[in-house]
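Memo to structure team: turn this sequence into structure tokens by end of day. - J.P.
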Amino acid sequence: MKIWNLFKREKRQVEHRIFSCSIHDDVEILGQVFHGLQDIDAHVEMVKYEGSSREPWDYKPEKNGKVHVGEMLMRYPCFDSSDYLYENRSYQNFILRDRPITSSDMIRLEQLPSHIDALRIDASVPEDMLPMVYYVGDGDTMIVAV
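Reply from structure team:
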């Protein structure tokens, strides 16, 4: 697995490991091995649509495993009626916890600074928001922050 980047926060000198890997790679997060992005997505318990004020958010039945996953989606931009009909990609930010995901977790995720393509992962992410995973919705690469 390739190390994508290594950052240090100035206040506590906490190291964030941020790396990219294939969406098909096995990734161990909080002691559980996920067999690619599809497996992470299969463990999602709560979904928040970015910018939506709708509550409660979509809850899915709790999955087996010791890691709990929350997902925030932002649909790709649509510019005409054809886009609205056929565009099904979305930017995906995932948070992973060793406890059930709460609406507070999802609110904090949405409040993190958003970068290009709705990316929420950077060196300033608070330690208690990690681990996180990001997928741009297209291609073979996901970004993991632990």
